[in-house]
Write a structure and sequence with these properties.
Order of helices and strands: HHHHHHHHHHH
Distance between the termini: 45 Å
CATH topology of one domain: Leucine-rich Repeat Variant
Mean pLDDT: 80
Number of helices: 11
Strand content: under 5%
Helix content: 55-70%
Radius of gyration: 18 Å
CATH architecture of one domain: Alpha Horseshoe
Largest sheet: none
Number of strands: 0
């Protein structure tokens, strides 16, 4: 059997469907590092891998593959993944649901309307996650434009966006820290 690094090297060169399927399968095998390497290889393939990854997200019996598929789709950022990621919010595994929300947030502005739909979800955790994702996307838009979108952004900021005191990459949402740094610091 070919090693994961071997599969990755071969697939990143050829982009054949069988190789993509092998990488998707590898996302659920071995240790976490091997799974992550396979996911990164899929992301490096990019658009050519989107449809098979979507199929894995929606149809795999392996929750780790579904989780890694959602992660890869978010990092690739292709809008074709938005509807399947919304469908993944109904996954039986909470970890897959959360990763789908994070993937929609990674996709960014094209996913906002779908995230508004998720804010209506009956699951309170999905509603909270979707709300946070919408706010994060809107805050990133403010940062990219170097201005507050005040009328659209009253729920996030008033005049200017204060940046996280730790990473300096994202807006402050919790005691001077962004969502990422707050989570790592346990705040």
């Amino acid at each position: 059997m070919e090693s994961i690094p071997g599969k990755i090297a071969r697939e990143e060169r050829t982009h054949d469907l069988d190789g993509i399927e092998e990488l998707i399968k590898s996302c659920g095998e071995g240790n976490g590092l091997a799974q992550q390497e396979a996911r990164i290889a899929l992301e490096n393939i990019g658009e050519a891998a989107v449809e098979p990854i979507i199929q894995a997200l929606l149809n795999s019996k392996n929750s780790i593959i579904r989780w890694r598929a959602a992660e890869a789709l978010g990092h690739i950022g292709d809008a074709r993944a938005i509807e399947p990621l919304i469908q993944a919010l109904a996954d039986k595994e909470t970890s897959v649901q959360w990763r789908a929300i994070e993937a929609l947030a990674d996709i960014g502005e094209p996913a906002i309307d779908s995230l508004y739909f998720a804010v209506e979800n009956e699951n309170v955790e999905i509603r909270w996650g979707a709300t946070r994702a919408v706010k994060d996307i809107k805050a990133k838009i403010c940062i990219e434009k170097h201005e507050c979108l005040s009328a659209k952004m009253k729920d996030i900021c008033t005049v200017s966006v204060e940046m996280c005191s730790a990473c300096k990459k994202y807006p402050v949402v919790n005691f001077g820290y962004c969502i990422e740094c707050s989570g790592r610091r346990g705040i």
